[in-house]
Amino acid sequence: AQSVTQLDSQVPVFEEAPVELRCNYSSSVSVYLFWYVQYPNQGLQLLLKYLSGSTLVKGINGFEAEFNKSQTSFHLRKPSVHISDTAEYFCAVRNDYNTDKLIFGTGTRLQVFP
Amino acid sequence: DVKVTQSSRYLVKRTGEKVFLECVQDMDHENMFWYRQDPGLGLRLIYFSYDVKMKEKGDIPEGYSVSREKKERFSLILESASTNQTSMYLCASSPVGGAAYEQYFGPGTRLTVT
Q: For an interface test with A, which of B3, B102, B104, B110 has the most A Cβ atoms less than 10 Å from its Cβ?
């Protein structure tokens, strides 16, 4: 089965600074990767996903992620964050081949300061 | 607009009570999921249902059961609530082949067992 590691539990950053949230997954033949965001007191919503093709994936709210097969990573980036980006971010990977289940990482709390 | 609703946002129950958490989706999705979210542990899958009356145990099914009598509704049951089941519970749904599609999440139910 797959596993997901989010290396940073908290990332503090000032407004308009760039940010990178790190995600590593265990290797597999076929990988589907996702980033979800959870705003305070809400459920999760999809930011972006990688299924195949271009390794640079663009998502909503100016976020993007790069799939790196050799490093088994799928880091999330934004060149300039806003206060409204303060939230918890979860990386997820398909649990196993031929399944609809996902394995989620432990989450990274992004705190944006003015 | 797609929607997953959960019956309560906040719930307080006593130890030993039988607790029902209800989830309804209006997207005609085959798959439905119940997760538990705890700080530092991320989302952990409790149960998964891929069709009416069909279910599959997730990573932490102990102390929980589920019911899916209709396609749109997926219930999580705590037969005898305990304090270690105090947590945030999230319901999600997705179409079959859902690993290639996003899971849609409800707003969550914060359950406190005293």
A: B102
pLDDT tier, B36 (very low <50, low <70, confident <90, very high otherwise): very high
First CA to last CA distance, chain B: 37
Q: Which of B89, B105, B109 to mutate to test the interface with A (most CBs of A within 10 A)?
A: B105
Q: What pLDDT digit, counting tens, does each position of B15-24 carry?
A: 999 999 999 9
**Terminal-residue alpha carbon distance, chain A:** 41
pLDDT number for residue B76: 98
Give the span between the Cα atoms of A82 and A73, in whole angstroms.
Answer: 25
Question: Does residue A16 sit in helix, strand or coil?
Answer: coil
Nearest to B90 among A34, A43, A101 (CB): A43
Pair A4, A23: CB distance under 8 Å: yes
* Cross-chain Cβ contact A101/B33 below 8 Å: yes
Residues B70-110 pLDDT 10s: 999 999 999 999 999 999 999 999 988 756 678 899 999 99
Write the DSSP assignment of B47-108 as a string of letters: EEEEETTEEEE-S--TTEEEEEEETTEEEEEESS--GGG-EEEEEEEE-TTGGGSPPEE---
The chain-wide mean pLDDT, for chain A, equals: 91
